Amino acid sequence: MAGALVLAAGGGTALFSGCGKKGAEEALSSLALPPLPYPANALAPFMSEKTLNFHHGRHHANYVKKLGELIKGTEYSEMDILAIIRKSHKDPRAAAIFNNAAQANNHAFFWLSMKPKGGGVPGGAVKKAIDKSFGSQDAFRKAFLDAASSVFGSGWVWLVNDGGKLVVAKTQNADTPVTSSAVPLLCLDVWEHAYYLDYQDKRADYAAAWLDHLVNWDFAEKNLAG
Q1: How far is residue 130's CA from residue 145's CA, in Å, rounded to a whole number?
Q2: Residue 223 burial (CB count, 10 A)
Q3: Contact 4, 177 (CB under 8 A)
Q4: Is the peptide bond before 45 cis (omega within 30 degrees of 0)?
Q5: pTM higher than 0.85, yes or no?
Q6: In whole numbers, what is the pLDDT of the chain averaged over residues?
Q7: CATH for 1-9+47-226, among 3.20.20.190, 3.20.110.10, 3.40.50.300, 3.55.40.20?
Q8: Where exactly are the structural domains of the chain?
Q9: Mean per-residue pLDDT for 42-54?
């Protein structure tokens, strides 16, 4: 099912679909490849310059390029990225458009979910919301790392606000929370190309390094505030 979102927190999972809010979840403001929000070497040694150059300059760029080719001359060419994702998500004939649009936006959101010298324990409203929703920062960390390790094949791990409660969400392939009522705060790319050059098959090490050293809690704070 395209766009399915599995939310897991506090002892259960649920499948959500619907129409999310427009706002911070729209990372790709135009149908063009956005520049990285930091130099390509700024996340080393936890994410190498080589990884960022391949990931952004080839993988992300190809999704944006392919999307432009697919929507040229169609009704989608007049839409913003969220409208493209949500409309194509409902149309099995537009699966290729959905996949490329969602991946383009997911990647743009992923770059913003990181910053140099990031990671660690959040502060402010995000910390309070995590403590309330998960019970503790350690419980959140375990839930997030367990989700990262348990995505089968390719996909994404998200921290989302679902009706005032923060939950960890897993999506497969190109799927995204923006097709649901949940509002994304952060995301981690667990497609193999996101980490293989630096971590090989050690996805768990990659996810732990991301939480400890790269995650951009300031971005999550802005998204939580709406």
Answers
A1: 15
A2: 22
A3: no
A4: yes
A5: yes
A6: 89
A7: 3.55.40.20
A8: 1-9+47-226
A9: 98
